[in-house]
Amino acid sequence: MGLLSEGSPLSWPETKELADHVRKHGITQFINLYNLLKDRQGDVLKWGDEIEYMLVKFNHETKKAQLSLRGQDLLPVLQITEKETPEKATSLWRPEFASYMIEGTPGKPYGGLLAHFNIVEANMKNRRQEVCALLEKDEQILSITAFPRLGCEGFCVPEAKPDPVNSASRSLFFPDEAIYLAHPRFRTLTRNIRERRGEKVAINVPIFKDINTPSPFMEDLTVLGDDGEKGRSALPDHIYMDAMGFGMGQCCLQLTFQACNIKEARTLYDQLTPMCPIMLALTAASPLQRGYIADTDCRWNIISSSVDCRTREERGLEPLKTNRYRIYKSRYDSIDSYLSPEGERYNDIPLVIDQEAYKRMRDAGIDHLLAQHVAHLFIRDPVSLFSEKVNQNDEEDSDHFENLQSTNWQTMRFKPPPPKSTIGWRVEFRPCEAQITDFENAAYVCFIVLLTRVIVTYGLNFLIPISKVDENMKRAQKRDAILNQKFWFRKDLVSQSSPTDAESTARQEQICVEMTIGEIINGKGEEFQGLLPLISSYLSTVEVDADTHCTIHQYLRLIQKRASGDLMTTAHWIREFVTKHPDYKGDSVVSEGINYDLLTTMNSIQNGTIECPSLLDHPRTKTQSSIPETIRMAENCPSTC
Ligand code: ADP
Ligand code: MG
Ligand code: MG
What we know:
CATH architecture: 2-Layer Sandwich
Helix content: 25-40%
Number of domains: 1
Bound molecules: adenosine-5'-diphosphate, magnesium ion
Distance between the termini: 30 Å
């Protein structure tokens, strides 16, 4: 999760005092990086996934499943190969926010060969095995987005009690022990975000109202202890959560691509933006929150609220007195502006920027769109700072820039090359929820990478107004969005013609239409070609070996059937599992027993001991751990430029 500087974390008052210093030097560092690397050319396509996992301990006698707080025990062992013989590491492991989480990526990024699509799933499987070898009896590693009973009494092992008075979050539900404490970043962020905001974070998720759910649904939170705020932020008919861990303690699937130059990176950043809500809905996997069934399917709004450090003034609840700006979104949210010249005309939502930072970048020769993007990131304060890192050499370091960059957690991230590295301009795709199986995670990853190839090869245009992307983000999180919602999408992906600025908004609106995700992915007769048919026609023009072809075909079939509703989304499947469980009382409650049965079933689906055709069909990919030499030789690495 972003920059992991080591050292002594500063308190919020100390960090606040240094906020201008960090911003000033962060901008200098960005200008230096930009000047050094703006003309960098010819980087090849490289890409890699990131999967976050949860450690779960099962007690098969008491029928209990708990989160196992052993991330800090496992990580040093998992990182031995990377430290000692990095060239041999097939996976890289990083800490994540929670002590029950770990994050795994491939040992090195994949490249432009199509055959790389055939090693993704095997690498994911191997990653799991590396962890499994270190697990205790009845402990498992699951790639699930949300732990259904996160924050319920006894949800973790060793059991830990929340401390609403002295803990970093002051949560009524989420103890500090569940935060990854072996690195100071996560606890510091928790505390500083709360202190900056001036009160605890407040997350309210609409509850799914079933036949026996109390109406209005309102919990008595006073029994959990007086936290000084007495749960006054809890809304009726909502599941209330009050800690960073409820959001950052959920798992996701992310992807990073390297572009051939800065221009292509800006184009991909923009072109993939309209795909964010679509992929969020397709990967929806988190309908259970804090022991209840929610009326939403995704984690996005939860995680957004879980790190919302804006003060009451910044949120528009009080007139601006001590703060500089009214800020419309949390620092974890969908992006606010496009970066490419083609995208500019679709930047139609208010963009608050740090004027001084903007001016400095413009004076240094950075164009308007890039300068406003960075100046928007820099309206935020740093929320984690280490004393050893305060004074830096702006010619060589980029930590101050990275500090703000890596705590703007948006749907897309535009990543400049790190100083003194061989890495190029990259783009990160961040909306997807983690899926139960490696097959699904590999399928979504390969689908998005293939889509970037199609966009670049055919010069496709997906752009729609940013306000429409935001509207789609809301729709994507609704219960069964795939089945019930329509999404704004660009009508004509091939034509580059767009109304000019002078033309009316009404004309701009005609650029996009509302379609179901099934129609967007699979096509809608003569009216819309569909993304999968485009990918298929791309694949028919390139050489690909038989095994890779078979694997890709199965991945695309999963996407096709999830989009059409023939296969369930993970969220839909989870809802059905709970509501059809014999113990379920129609009251929206996910009991210990249901939690246990659900997680053991997910684990069995993941390791293949049970089949789940309603979710997966019958996948049999030909994934393998390495690319055969003959294929490597036969396939010419397609250039991305
Ligand atoms: P984050 O910014 O989320 O911490 P990292 O920089 O650690 O992400 O990288 C995340 C992903 O980027 C991994 O999947 C990794 O394989 C991939 N990756 C590493 N190097 C490159 C590169 N040069 N180009 C594209 N992706 C890369
Ligand atoms: Mg992460
Ligand atoms: Mg990432």
